[in-house]
Design brief:
By secondary structure, the protein is α+β, with helices and mostly antiparallel strands. The chain is built from 14 helices and 8 strands. Strands 1, 2, 3, 4, 5, 6, 7 and 8 form an 8-stranded mixed beta sheet that branches.
């Protein structure tokens, strides 16, 4: 951001980069702020602490926060970096997959940490919250993840500058968050992002629809990472956002896997594995059959498999939608 003379140069052009775009939206933020009034900055700062910690732990950057919506970014290697045959992180192709994996890990860890952070969960019994939302309130977030190009630059003056990312692809992230109203899913991902994930990470995700936005040329697949409300164990020494090993795999040496990135998290981490542990495989099989029949126009068969899927998971948002 400095010129050759050491002065700030705000007139330099931006750079076109490829990034993972993650939007985290605090549900009912405006209403919560109205309820808490002068306490609302404390509430948002407690959430921000978790979001920033998880994002930083897994290599991302919190670019901005506006009205309860956070924009997180992960920069990908340049497209000019040639892929190699190496099966480790010296290969740009492996780096891209690892960065996508990191963004998904960050999202899931953020959800888990918000659920168990006592300072945030205390708002369940806050008198003003209860009077507005009732006794069933919980602090919820929605996460949308996409991948695409962006113009990276700085915006501001000599008094204050901010990093900026300008792209229609960022709007996709916000659209994914908005889609929770239709699908009821906490985490929604575009097909472009899903395509970069490792095989193990992909097995944790479910395709739920094919969608279109009017500012992009093609339709794309919509995916979710299914989660349950299961309470997960956490060691007393745990730090925000970090790996929590499954007890049965506590003796596994993580360092032996790290040269290939964070793919091990989808096998070893108690949050990532535990959030899906109670979902029956029969549910996934039935929904997959329903989706294939749905896109091929076999409506009766699709309905039959959807009903079967709902018999295993009664309140599944995508199946109900």
């Amino acid at each position: 951001m400095m010129s050759g003379e050491g002065e700030l140069n705000l007139m330099r052009p931006g750079n076109k980069v490829s990034i993972v775009i993650q939007i985290i939206n605090i549900e009912n933020f405006t209403t919560i702020s109205e309820c808490l009034q002068e306490e609302s900055p404390i509430f948002i700062n407690k959430l921000s602490n978790v979001i920033h910690a998880c994002c930083k732990e897994w290599g991302g950057l919190v670019s901005k926060n506006i009205q309860g919506s956070f924009l997180l970014v992960w920069r990908l290697p340049e497209v000019t970096d040639k892929d190699t045959d190496e099966d480790d992180l010296t290969n740009p192709a492996m780096q891209r997959t690892d960065i996508a994996n990191r963004a998904l890990v960050s999202a899931i860890k953020t959800l888990a940490e918000i659920r168990r952070t006592s300072e945030i969960q205390a708002y369940k019994v806050h008198p003003r919250i209860i009077s507005r939302f009732g006794p069933t309130y919980s602090t919820d977030i929605t996460i949308g993840i996409h991948i695409g190009w962006s113009i990276e630059g700085v915006i501001g003056s000599e008094s204050k500058i901010d990093p900026a990312y300008l792209s229609p692809h960022i709007s996709v992230g916000y659209n994914l968050v908005e889609a929770r109203k239709e699908y009821g899913s906490t985490v929604l991902m575009s097909e472009d992002f899903y395509g970069y994930l490792s095989v193990k990470a992909k097995t944790c995700c479910r395709r739920i629809d094919t969608v279109y936005v009017n500012y992009l040329p093609n339709t794309f697949g919509l995916y979710t990472f299914d989660i349950t409300e299961k309470e997960l164990p956490v060691p007393e020494t745990h730090q925000l956002g970090k790996l929590i090993k499954l007890q049965k795999l506590d003796s596994v040496n993580v360092e032996s896997f790290q040269h290939k990135g964070v793919d091990y998290m989808f096998t070893l981490d108690s949050d990532i594995v535990g959030m899906q542990q109670d979902i029956p495989q029969h549910f996934f099989d039935s929904f997959r059959h329903a989706y294939v029949d749905y896109i091929s126009g076999q409506w009766d068969e699709a309905k039959e498999f959807l009903e079967k899927a709902l018999s295993y998971l009664h309140e599944d948002g995508p199946a109900l939608s």
